[in-house]
């Protein structure tokens, strides 16, 4: 019996996928616990344990309270804290959009990835630590050539994903001053990754001063402008953004 030929599958347009990514970013930013909604990060005294339900007592119905933990950079002991999110936060109600560069396929780069055995840790300065550093796990090296110059980049482990924190000459001009973030795309080949800078994004501290974002280390600073990805958040009514 003659079998019908399978229907042709239309190729996926990378620019359309990028537009979907932009829409997803907006949905995440404007969620009740999105970056724009964070109004307070409260770190507790040593030894205290957070109680989100107790902390929420007396708060407006628009407020959500969650817990978080980090490591003290001096003692190495865990620090516990609370985060307060408000779906009526001024930044959220004043938010309009995030400016972006036009999609540019030239900024989709292949890179070599070399895993490093063991839990290698690299010092990253954080925006709210007054020049101090925190060690983050960097499980491999990313080698890429940009505009004829070779780079060996450090992306740290972010709950199983590789997160690149990078800087370039657009910072403090058309993009967020402290640098931008990019999730590294793994491939079927463990030694090959994709850096799609069209998906570079403003870090959480660009939307709320209650985040403590890592800053780009020297090896992650590019010599030429990376004119791809997100630029800056735009607010209505003269609301001052975190630029």
Task: Explain the layout of strands and helices.
Layout: H1 14-29, E1 38-43, H2 52-56, E2 63-71, E3 78-86, H3 90-94, E4 95-100, E5 108-115, E6 121-125, E7 133-137, E8 140-146, E9 149-158, E10 161-166, E11 180-186, E12 192-196, E13 230-235
Antiparallel strand pairs: 1-3, 2-3, 4-13, 5-8, 5-12, 6-7, 8-9, 9-10, 10-11, 11-12
Pfam family, one: DUF1684
InterPro entries: DUF1684
In spatial order, strands of the major sheet run: 5-8-9-10-11-12
Could you give the order of the helices and strands?
Answer: HEHEEHEEEEEEEEEE
- Low-pLDDT stretches: none
Sheet with most strands: 6 strands, antiparallel, barrel
> How many extended strands?
13
- Taken as a percent bin, the fraction of beta residues is 35-45%
Pfam families: DUF1684
InterPro entries: DUF1684
């Amino acid at each position: 019996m003659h079998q019908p030929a399978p229907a042709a599958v239309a190729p996926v347009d990378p620019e359309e996928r990028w537009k979907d990514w932009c829409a997803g970013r907006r949905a995440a930013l404007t969620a009740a616990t999105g970056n724009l909604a964070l109004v307070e990060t409260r770190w507790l005294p040593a030894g205290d344990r957070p109680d989100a339900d107790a902390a929420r007592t007396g708060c407006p119905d628009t407020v959500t309270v969650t817990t978080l933990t980090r490591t003290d950079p001096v003692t190495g002991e865990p620090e516990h804290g609370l985060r307060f999110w408000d779906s009526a936060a001024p930044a959220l109600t004043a938010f309009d959009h995030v400016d972006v560069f036009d999609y540019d396929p030239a900024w989709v780069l292949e890179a070599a990835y070399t895993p490093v055995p063991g839990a290698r840790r690299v010092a990253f300065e954080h925006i709210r630590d007054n020049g101090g550093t925190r060690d983050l796990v960097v499980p491999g090296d990313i080698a890429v050539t940009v505009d004829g110059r070779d780079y060996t980049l450090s992306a740290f482990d972010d709950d199983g994903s590789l997160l690149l924190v990078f800087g370039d000459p657009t910072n403090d001009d058309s993009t967020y001053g402290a640098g931008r973030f990019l999730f590294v795309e793994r491939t079927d080949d463990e030694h090959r990754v994709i850096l799609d800078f069209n998906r570079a994004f403003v870090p959480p501290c660009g939307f709320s001063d209650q985040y403590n974002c890592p800053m780009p280390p020297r090896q992650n600073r590019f010599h030429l402008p990376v004119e791809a990805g997100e630029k800056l958040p735009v607010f209505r009514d003269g609301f001052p953004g975190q630029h």
